[in-house]
Amino acid sequence: MDITFVIEKFILVAIIFGISLVIAMYSTYAERKVAAFLQDRLGPDRAGPAGMFQPLADGLKMFMKEEIIPTHANKWLFMVGPGLAMLTACIGTAVIPWGSQITIGSKVIPLQVTDINVGVLYIFGVVSLSVYGVMIGGWASNNKYSLLSAIRAASQNISYEVAMGLAIIALLLVTNTLSLKEIVEQQHGWHWNVLYQPLGFILFIVCAFAETNRAPFDLPECETELIGGYHTEYSSMKLGFYLFAEYINMFVSSAVMSTLYFGGYNYPGMDWVASVAGPVLAPLIGTAVLFAKIFAFIFFFMWVRWTIPRFRYDQLMHLGWKVLMPLAIANVIITGIVIAIVEKF
Q1: Other Cβ atoms within 10 Å of 168 Cβ, number
Q2: How far is residue 175's CA from residue 172's CA, in Å, rounded to a whole number?
Q3: Chain centre to alpha carbon of residue 38
Q4: Does the pLDDT value for residue 312 go beyond 90?
Q5: CA–CA dist 249, 220 (Å, integer)
Q6: Of 113, 78, 6, 9, which is closest to residue 238 (Cα–Cα)?
């Protein structure tokens, strides 16, 4: 194996991992600033200019806090839970195309860790694994509130994965590929999939809220019923890992939605920009456009959290099984009929 290939991938993984952590860290700052704006408050404004150093202060506080493991907890699983939550949150970035390839002389550097031909299935596999960190943490805590929260999280994730999978099936009927790179390339120009699958996108984003445990679907962390939820017994950086994993999941979900439905790194006029900017700068501009779309989705996640009240659990299940499921099935059927008619005539 070419050593330069390994070095390139290692550097790309390190950069993506670092960016994910920084975005997760400053998403906590943005969350409070967005909440303050919507509620006519100031938000963090003490640590640094406009409170910019607040995430650093929070991180230092997490490191300095006393770490407590409950006496009757399963100590090994208690430590595994937060690590598994972080791991499953981070590995989803491996198949996302962050930009088109950079050409330096005769060297071509793709801005994607790996382009597997089942990238969509990989994403779903990672999404399915993410619930294990929550389940293990809630069960290992030996706390009835944490366990109830873990059970809620598992049933919620399973319920909404079904509708999300059906939404993706309709998209795959349109794209005819499971490769995220190919899906992005098919959306070159204004051929964004959201124009062909508007209902599928709405279903996907609603399910994404449920999968990331974001309000109004944050039933596993319902303070009035479950104290802190599955991480009630956690402290120090173990708690920090769970909180970081939630924001990384939000970042990855936003990247997946931007890739599948909003063209990824594609934008209007990119061919002209490529002819002017060159083979190095043009792909980086596309990457910046992708991150702009991601930040727009992250803002939407936060906007919804501070606007819509939390569902009751029976309402959550009713929406998942009796509303989203029939709509997703209908979307698959309608998409199949339209494609058959178009191919016929």
Answers
A1: 25
A2: 5
A3: 23
A4: no
A5: 15
A6: 78
- Residue of 143, 315, 140, 150 lying closest to 220 (CA atoms): 150
- Residue 239 near residue 160 (C-beta atoms within 8 A): no
Side-chain-facing half-sphere of 127: CA atoms under 13 Å: 27
- Residue among 207, 47, 49, 73 at smallest CA distance from 138: 73
Among 305, 313, 310, 312, which Cα is nearest to 152's? 313
Averaged pLDDT, 302-327 = 92
Report CA-CA distances (Å) from 120 to 177, 182, 211, 332: 9, 11, 16, 17
The CA distance from 54 to 63, in Å, is 14
CA-based end-to-end distance of the chain: 49
- pTM for the full model? 0.93
**Tens digit of pLDDT for each residue in 224-271?**
666 777 888 888 888 889 988 989 999 999 999 999 999 999 998 899
Buried b (16+ CB within 10 A) or exposed e, 130-157: bbbbbbbbbbbbebebbbbbbbbbbbbb
CA distances to 33, 182, 203, 204, 297 from 194, in Å: 29, 16, 11, 11, 14
CA dist 75 and 77 (Å) reads 6
User: Do residues 194 and 259 lie in contact, with contact meaning Cβ atoms separated by under 8 Å?
Assistant: no
Sign of the torsion formed by the C-alpha atoms of 272, 273, 277 and 278: negative
Give me the mean pLDDT over the 124-132 stretch. 87
Work out the percent of the chain whose per-residue pLDDT is above 70.
99
Q: Which residue has the tokens 């019923």?
A: 225
103 DSSP β-pair partners: 108
CA distances from 263 to 85, 123, 270 (A): 29, 17, 12
DSSP state letters, 170-239: HHHHHH----HHHHHHHT-TT--HHHH-HHHHHHHHHHHHHHTT-TTS-GGG-HHHHTTGGGTT--HHHH
* 73-94 residue pLDDT tens: 888 999 999 999 999 999 989 9
Task: Note the helical H segments in 65-197.
Answer: 75-90, 119-140, 144-175, 180-186, 193-196
